[in-house]
Design a protein that fits this description.
With 212 residues, the chain is of the alpha+beta class. It contains 2 helices and 8 strands, in the order ααββββββββ.
Length: 212
């Protein structure tokens, strides 16, 4: 009988009391909350880094396509001048680059709000013209231009530091065009950190004393 009581008493003393169990659960809960918060922070940081890379790389790709199309500018299939319009937020020109088979397409880059769009019309009809449907593509949705223009235009004297032509631009003077893309590095609410991607090209069929 005494042996049984001693065994029962020893077992009771070696176990957890109710208070100890509650404290243990509480501490475990705090640890889990901390670990969960840390994992979320790591994932959020990784996501933001991915967004930054995607935003900047996307702007660089668009700039590359834009300069290629400018370099391949040409008179339109209907005899139109290579540049149709040159404003701070929109440029319309004719280029052989979109189809890459000698067809001269009408290309339009323009910004509305914080979004950059591209519109293309391939020539059609007899005689050829550009009255067909314009295919519009959304290129970037995270522009942060502010009061800055998207497009800058230069004449044949441009040497890399010459001032841009003032608006309204005389399209007959334009020989070099630069696009200045200012994009948010992190496409999140309240983000203000930006990256600027500048690209430009000479319109080969219009160049005078420019070597590129």
């Amino acid at each position: 009988m005494n042996t049984f009581l001693k065994t029962k008493k020893g077992a009771s003393q070696s176990g957890f009391t109710l208070i100890e169990t509650i404290v243990t659960i509480f501490i475990f809960g705090l640890l889990m909350i901390g670990i969960t918060a840390m994992i979320r922070a790591i994932m959020s940081t990784s996501k933001q880094q991915s967004l930054t890379i995607n935003n900047v790389d996307g702007a660089r790709r668009i700039s590359g396509v834009f300069t290629n199309e400018l370099r391949n500018s040409a008179h339109g299939a209907n005899g139109a001048y290579p540049i149709n319009q040159a404003t701070a937020t929109q440029i319309i020109f004719f280029s052989t680059a979109p189809k890459n088979n000698g067809t001269v397409s009408r290309v339009r880059y323009y910004v509305t709000g914080n979004t950059l769009y591209k519109g293309v019309i391939h020539p059609s009809g007899n005689p050829l013209g550009y009255g067909g449907t314009e295919t519009i593509t959304t290129l970037l949705t995270n522009l942060s231009l502010g009061a800055n223009p998207l497009f800058y235009y230069y004449d044949g004297n441009y040497n890399g530091s010459t001032s841009a032509l003032t608006q309204p631009v005389n399209i007959n003077q334009v020989k070099f065009v630069k696009m200045g893309l200012v994009v948010l590095k992190q496409n999140t609410a309240g983000s203000t950190t930006t990256s600027t991607i500048n690209s430009g090209a000479t319109l080969r069929n219009l160049k005078t004393n420019l070597g590129n």
